[in-house]
Write a structure and sequence with these properties.
single chain; mainly beta; Protein Transport Mog1p, Chain A; 4 helices
């Protein structure tokens, strides 16, 4: 694939059960799963009308012809077996952290030297493809769609994959200007990517199946060039300290596209950090601890959970705590991922962690890239109290 770079000048094992002289509460799945409140729908400063008029003006400047009454005819989606990118040319957009490949007969039209405006792609058919990327003002694509108040309607909505990311494709009708484009939306951390297949050359709808297929194949090649540059506008959150709990309060930072809720009841504290169907949950409750026995753990006598058949991912937080996360099990349309922390003075890992039970709740078919984003948030968990105070010894 030729590359052009544009640069500005195992089966699940049950988690270890805590040991407690009182009725036990698991730091993970023995507490009722807290469902975060729906985030208020936000209005965006950059409205859909302005975007439509800008794109229309661009289309007219290229193809300045009158519209006809062509009706929309689209396919139901592109399966993995339909993807064909032989000969596609790689396009890299450094300021907006992405790369994708375009069909060999399509042509990138530069709209500004720094690539921050709409990227226009001339196709080999009666349409233009455009790419916009901008800072998202809400937590989800649904927030963005709810904010659009320009009179557009949609005749079809489908979940799609944009590279490895979950997105939404819509066949829209822009009544004010008489166009029926295909628009695809995906939000990654605090960045919104918006792709449009816009009819041109006097057409008001997309009628070519091969054109739609090339458009979807192009989106299948989308990847991020860097995730470290995303979510720079991170916010800090400091949790409460619950009287009677040995767990400390702690702080962390998170991208603004992730929401945080905190719930205290029955002397328990639940912190939820979530976006769409992905959630990090920290549960602080008076429970006993257990050692997590992984395949590299020494023999142990005492309360423990056998995780030796589990694969794990290990990472170190910014304050030096060593954590291991492991896949627990599927629960319907959800999967759970649990955590154990390295003890300060023994070779063992244990649960709960110093800060409480840490768990991920993710879709059954989860996006590993988003799980890695969650890891980056957990890496910022910080407390000034003794690092082994809440760990079993």
């Amino acid at each position: 694939m030729e590359e052009t770079v544009y640069q500005p000048a195992v089966s699940p094992v049950a988690p270890p059960e805590p040991v407690s002289p009182t009725p036990s509460v698991s730091p993970h799945d023995k507490l009722t799963h807290f469902k975060p409140k729906t985030t208020p729908k936000l209005l965006y400063l950059v409205g859909g009308v302005a975007i439509i008029l800008l794109t229309l003006a661009i289309a007219i400047s290229f193809f300045g012809k009158s519209k006809t009454n062509t009706k929309t005819s689209t396919s139901s989606g592109t399966s993995s077996t339909d993807i064909e990118t032989t000969g596609f040319i790689t396009y890299t957009n450094i300021p907006n952290f992405f790369t994708l490949a375009i069909p060999p007969k399509w042509k990138i039209v530069e709209t500004s030297p720094d690539q921050t405006d709409t990227i226009i792609i001339e196709t080999d058919n009666q349409a233009l493809a455009t790419i916009r990327s901008f800072k998202a003002a809400g937590n989800t694509v649904d927030d963005y769609l709810a904010s659009i108040q320009d009179g557009r309607t949609t005749s079809k909505t489908s979940p799609v994959k944009i590279g490895a990311y979950d997105g939404i494709e819509r066949t829209e009708s822009w009544a004010k200007i008489g166009l029926q484009p295909i628009v695809t939306y995906v939000q990654i951390q605090d960045k919104m990517y918006l792709f449009t297949l816009l009819p041109s050359d006097g057409k008001n709808a997309i009628s070519s199946e091969s054109l739609i297929r090339d458009y979807r194949n192009m989106l299948s090649t989308f990847t991020l060039t860097s995730t470290s540059a995303l979510g720079k506008d991170w916010k800090e959150y400091v949790t409460s300290k619950v009287d009677g709990l040995t767990f400390p309060s702690f702080s962390f930072t998170h991208p603004q596209s992730w929401a945080v809720t905190e719930k205290s009841e029955n002397k328990n504290l639940i912190i939820s950090i979530y976006r769409n169907n992905y959630e990090i949950k920290v549960t602080q409750a008076e429970v006993g601890g257990a050692v997590c026995l992984f395949k590299d753990s020494p023999d142990f006598q005492g309360s423990s959970g056998d995780l030796r058949s589990k694969e794990f991912t290990e990472f170190t937080t910014k304050k030096g705590s060593i954590l291991r996360r492991y896949f627990n099990q599927n629960e319907g349309d959800k999967s759970t991922i649990f955590f154990c922390q390295k003890e300060a003075i023994t070779p063992y890992f244990a649960t709960p962690t110093q800060l409480g039970g840490i768990a991920y709740y993710v879709p059954a078919k989860y996006d590993l890239n988003i799980v890695k984003e969650m890891d980056e948030i957990v890496k910022t968990f910080t407390t000034s109290e003794a690092s082994s105070s809440a760990l079993p010894q």
